[in-house]
Amino acid sequence: MAKPDDLGKHERKEWSGTYEQFDPREQFLFLNAFKLYDMINAGRVHETAAAFWRFHFLIATILAHEVGDHLLITFLNHGRTFTPPDIGVSAYCKAGGGIGEAGRMLEICLFGGNLEYYQAPNQSMHDILNYQTGVTHIRILLIPKEESSEYTTVCFKSSSTEV
User: Fold this and answer.
1) pLDDT of residue 156
2) CB distance 13 to 28 below 8 Å
3) Among the residues of the chain, which ranges form H helices?
4) Bridge partner list, 28
5) How far is the C-alpha of 37 from the C-alpha of 26, rounded, in Å?
6) Nearest to 153 by CA among 162, 161, 143
7) For 96-154, how does the pLDDT look when each residue is reduced to its tens digit (9 = 90+)?
8) pTM of the entire structure?
9) Contact 4, 32 (CB under 8 A)
10) Cα 62 from Cα 59, distance rounded (Å)
11) Which of 18, 28, 94, 104 is the most exposed place for a label (fewest CB within 10 A)?
12) Taking a C-beta distance cutoff of 8 angstroms, is the pair 115, 107 a contact?
């Protein structure tokens, strides 16, 4: 991963042949090694069991985002193009230069909004073995007002006081 804040990434690789010949093992999926390392270590002692389960949720949502949609789009279009701009969330598509965001669309279907993980104010997310998954927020994008393309954004953060 290029940045410590990046949680996961799927780099599309073109492929040819029939859909039956698609081999997902030839695609590249990257996960944040520091988060995986922290999750493994958090599972080793009882005192950090709560952090261990937060990491499970974090990794599961990363995999759902990357495999559930980005790999699916790669499969469907032989890895030749990015996600179409009409598949995704307006704010993310505009920020991505008009490229769609299928992973964010899946998050809306699964959770009712997009998941974001923000650093807890009392910990650094870049310290090794801090067991910091980030505080989970669900970003809900509301339907635009009539005759306006602007969306109102509402964020909810997890109610857990343990971070």
Assistant:
1) 47
2) yes
3) 33-42, 49-65, 72-76, 90-95, 102-111
4) 11
5) 24
6) 143
7) 566 778 888 888 888 888 888 877 666 665 555 566 777 777 777 654 555 445 544 44
8) 0.72
9) yes
10) 5
11) 18
12) yes
